[in-house]
Amino acid sequence: MDRLPLIAPRPPGLSGMAAQLRAIEDRGIYSNGGPVVRGFEADATARLFEGKGDCLAVANATLGLMIAIRQAAGARAGTGAFALIPAFTFAATAHAALWAGLTPLLCDIDPLDWASSAQAEARAFDRYGDRIAVTVPYATFGAGIDLARYRDYAQRGIGVVVDAAASLGALDAQGCQFGTDAPFAIVYSMHATKVFATAEGGLVHSGDCALIDALRRMTNFVLPAAARPKARGSMPSCPRCWACSPPNGWRRSMRWPRTACG
Ligand SMILES: Cc1ncc(COP(=O)(O)O)c(C=O)c1O
């Protein structure tokens, strides 16, 4: 019996991008945050997020989650405080919290939309109070989750990072890209298995440009921050050859039906 694939990845092929790859070689600029990556971030902000806020390209969504969770935890990173994570997500979410020195605290999902349950979150806040430093909801399989609830948490001083791995191309109830202009970090994957695929890659968006700037510095060993680094940095920046694939990705994503979500 023939097997039906669950998904059929169609990332843009590098072989179709000979001109763009040659242009990179001709320019000879091999730099963190060079023109291809920065151009892609600016295009993503303009085309997907209506020019609001800013975007940061990273090598994959796991690395985006790692830096965003660490930044959201602030001084509580490394203390073992809790990161509230839905019981139904991908292992990367909990691994990223562990990397930030937090303890994953699993929370039930809602059986109707498979996303973190508001009641279960409320019970966790009642029980653990300010031991919860960060909450990392997952927009399950690209479904829209209620960001108003998370804005509320953010206003109460709880760090919020949204794992929106499958949501690049998903629309919210207003017809905008899910996550547009959010005050916290929204982390998307561009892995080959995702709708907006570059084969490998991640994108972090926020309406808060200062937050994206802080995350950008974390991708570059916290440079060019002032004398003493205040956050732990690494180098999860997006490789140039993946960043040049979105021009093909743009064309494809225009053809693909966008995932609607409420
Ligand atoms: C929910 C979720 N979070 C994070 C990731 C990690 O994404 P990436 O492969 O880009 O690191 C995935 C990947 O499938 C995912 O499904």
TrEMBL record:
Keyword Secreted recorded: no
Species assigned in the record: Sphingomonas xinjiangensis
Signal peptide: none
Pfam families noted in UniProt: DegT_DnrJ_EryC1
Name by which UniProt lists this protein: dTDP-4-amino-4,6-dideoxygalactose transaminase
Organism phylogeny: Bacteria, Pseudomonadati, Pseudomonadota, Alphaproteobacteria, Sphingomonadales
Any one GO MF annotation of this record: transaminase activity
Coiled coil stretches, renumbered: none
Family: Belongs to the DegT/DnrJ/EryC1 family.
UniProtKB keywords: Pyridoxal phosphate
